[in-house]
Amino acid sequence: MRTQVGIVGAGPAGLLLSHLLHLNGIESVVLEARSRAYVEGRIRAGVLEHPVEQLLNDTGVGDRMRAEGLPHEGVILRTEGRDHRIDFKGLTGKHVMVYSQHKIVQDLIAARLAAGGNIQFEATGVSLQGVRTDTPYILYEQGGRQHRLDCAIIAGCDGFHGISRETIPAPARQSFEREYPFGWLGILADAAPSSEELVYASHDRGFALLSMRSPTVSRLYLQCAPDEDIANWSDDRIWGELRTRLARDGFVLSDGPITQKSVTPMRSFVVEPMQYGRLFLVGDAAHIVPPTGAKGLNLAAADVAVLTRALAVWFRSGVADLLDTYGETCLRRVWKAQRFSWWMTSLLHRFSDHSPFERRVQRAELDAIFGSVAASTTLAENYVGLPLIL
Ligand code: APR
Ligand code: PHB
Question: How far apart are CA 251 and CA 269, in angstroms?
């Protein structure tokens, strides 16, 4: 089989890239290790930055998002029983869109297949060959047979645990990493959200986040040990801890059946460079952020916007300037999002090795935000999203 761009991974990065390339008249084939049902059912993030919402609307895949998504004009920071609302609309004129990542995956798969797109599910044993030549190709197994996909460009959209990043020889790449001494225990519950906007709570017992998926489905998280055994957390224990950490006079946390629970470790990670010959790393394959800033999906979309623009020029004219600087362009935004995500995480979580002094400084930083339009504006600008291409 031959195509212009071989894409490894049918997550948000791979699917959005295939969709935008198609709109630019560029053919691609997406190779996904898992089944369609698996990728469409994977519960992940849920907040779209304003530029990403616009991108989905502008490229014809925003219908269900407009119908089912929840526009949010602010978030609430809660500490010691006090709320401070970050007014996105008032400070930046923008909002964010709360819309499940798995619905974006479903919407993009539907759009690609309706447009005759080529997505090969359950394609395993993927290996990238000849990435330093002008004729790279991908080998994979599917249906008990070996296959070969010849292409001009390979996009590694296979996430943090994929094989693309490792295709770049170790001496040719540098990783930057921060492991956090905690993780998030996340639940989906059939419970009406107890707040109209997201609540980020900083509590002495640990961080908690109240989010949502719809008027009847809540998404909540609480800080836990990175290797927490979910078996130790009954539904009652989860609800009780969430009530404690989210407590504020007059606030009642409604509960309901928990339909999904999991523990996610937290890390910051970036690999440089994000390109090697004809291989281009996109999204989680190149970088991971702690979810506190809700940046993971949005960073993937920004990488896709940069790569699409570069490939459209290269395939049309052969001019490679934008392609040669793909990684450099992406990393300008990646590192700004890394800083913001690290800062939000450091600001709101309990660090067991914090001295009393450091805990006071943490509280003072929150107070500084609460008391400063400039500080609140900086948080709002980063949360609603920087321009996709800086
Ligand atoms: N071969 C083929 N497919 C693979 C391979 C492989 N060797 N390894 C991984 N994949 C697939 C995974 O099954 C997954 O569907 O690549 C896809 C990668 O998708 P994501 O991990 O979602 O990464 P990305 O598309 O960059 O989206 C980033 O997803 O994980 C969240 O928090 C993250 O919100 C962020 C978003
Ligand atoms: C979510 O709704 O899953 C969510 C929202 C905000 C975050 C992280 C996750 O910072």
Answer: 36
| pLDDT for residue 43 is more than 90 | no
Domain annotation covers residue 66: yes
| Tens digit of each residue's pLDDT (9 = 90 or more) over 337-389 | 999 999 999 999 999 999 999 999 999 999 999 999 999 999 999 999 999 98
Domain presence at residue 272 = yes
Asked about 276 being catalytic, the answer comes back as: no
Counting the structural domains of the chain, the total is: 1
Which among 72, 95, 287, 349 is annotated as catalytic? 72
Nearest-angstrom CA–CA distance, 85 and 246: 15
Distance CA 255, CA 218 (A): 9
Tell how far the Cα of 44 is from the centroid of ligand 1, in angstroms: 11
**Burial readout 262-278 (b: 16 or more C-beta within 10 A, e: otherwise):** ebbebebbbbbbbbbbb
What is residue 242's predicted lDDT score, i.e. its pLDDT? 98
Question: What does the pLDDT look like over 28-42, one tens digit per residue?
Answer: 999 999 999 999 999
Q: What is the CATH number of the domain that holds 327?
A: 3.50.50.60
Which phi and psi angles does 85 have, rounded to 5°? -90, 130
Our mutation pick for probing the ligand 2 site, out of 47, 101, 383, counting the most ligand atoms within 8 A of Cβ, is: 47
Region 260-275: mean pLDDT is: 97
Q: Is 198 exposed, middle or buried (0-12, 13-18, 19+ CB in 10 A)?
A: buried
The residue range of the domain holding 347 is: 5-70+97-177+268-351
Average pLDDT over every residue of 176-196: 97
**Amino acid 95: pLDDT:** 98
Judge whether 154 lies within some domain. yes
At residue 390, the pLDDT reads 87
Query: Does 193 sit behind a cis peptide bond, omega within 30 degrees of 0 on the bond before it?
Result: no
CA of 128 to the centre of ligand 2 (A): 33
> Separation of 34 CA from ligand 1 center, angstroms?
10
In a domain, 328, yes or no: yes
User: pLDDT tens for residues 139-162?
Assistant: 999 999 999 999 999 999 999 999
- CB burial of 320-356 (b: ≥16 within 10 Å; e: otherwise) equals eebbeebbebbbebbeebbebbbbbbbbbbbeeeeee
Q: Closest ligand 2 atom to the C-alpha of 212?
A: 2
